[in-house]
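Write out the 3D structure for:
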Amino acid sequence: MDSLVEEYGKEQAFSREAPGQRVKGKWTPGSVSEFTVLAVIQMATGKDLQNLPEGLRGKSTVRVYTDVELFAARVKGETGGPAGPDFFTWKGRKYEVTITDPRDGTDLPHYKSIAVMAPVDEE
């Protein structure tokens, strides 16, 4: 077996926003790209919830196992502008990646991410 994710994972689509930038003093968000990876998604455990910041612990939360790194929210992108977290839809709900930890100290290296339900877009 190459990895647990390859054995048990299902294809999952994710969205990633490139870092934005200021153009003539106005903020321009980065472009959004879509990608698909194999992922194992499960409801989060109580221990997973303890690792979240206080204000996020009451939201619907899942853990995501992948062979590729998912991006959590970050303050500075590679080009200096803020960039958002990766997003995905699972069981009809939109989630945003909050924490990603590499699990490379095991026989089967992978990434474990924690994602919380994203705020509903108000349009």
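Residues 4-117 form a domain with the Thrombin, subunit H fold (CATH 2.40.10).
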